[in-house]
Design a protein that fits this description.
Strand order of the largest sheet: 1-2
Distance between the termini: 26 Å
Order of helices and strands: EHHHHEH
Radius of gyration: 13 Å
Number of helices: 5
Oligomer: single chain
Shape: globular
Helix content: 40-55%
Structural class: mainly alpha
Strand content: under 5%
Number of strands: 2
């Protein structure tokens, strides 16, 4: 892991999980008690979630939080899929 700064950027795969689950930003927001704009900011990497919100989002997708959020950039999907 890289050297951590006080205000580290949190990378995420929210949109990938959300689209795969077939839910809208609004539905995800409703399920985690946030507003739709917050989900949009998160998906565009413009906002870091609280720990509680990150855990709630991961819970909606039924995965461990580290599969959705990371302090390091995720590898491109093309690399994971060998495309």
């Amino acid at each position: 892991m890289k050297h951590l700064h006080i205000m580290s950027k949190v990378f995420n795969r929210i949109k990938i999980f959300r689209v795969a689950k077939g839910i809208s930003q609004q539905e995800l927001a409703d399920r985690v008690g946030a507003n739709r704009q917050t989900i949009g900011f998160l998906e565009r990497q413009e906002y870091n979630p609280s720990i509680a919100l990150a855990l709630k989002i991961a819970s909606v997708f039924d995965v461990d939080v580290h599969k959705v959020f990371s302090l390091d950039p995720f590898p491109a999907l093309e690399k994971l899929l060998s495309i």
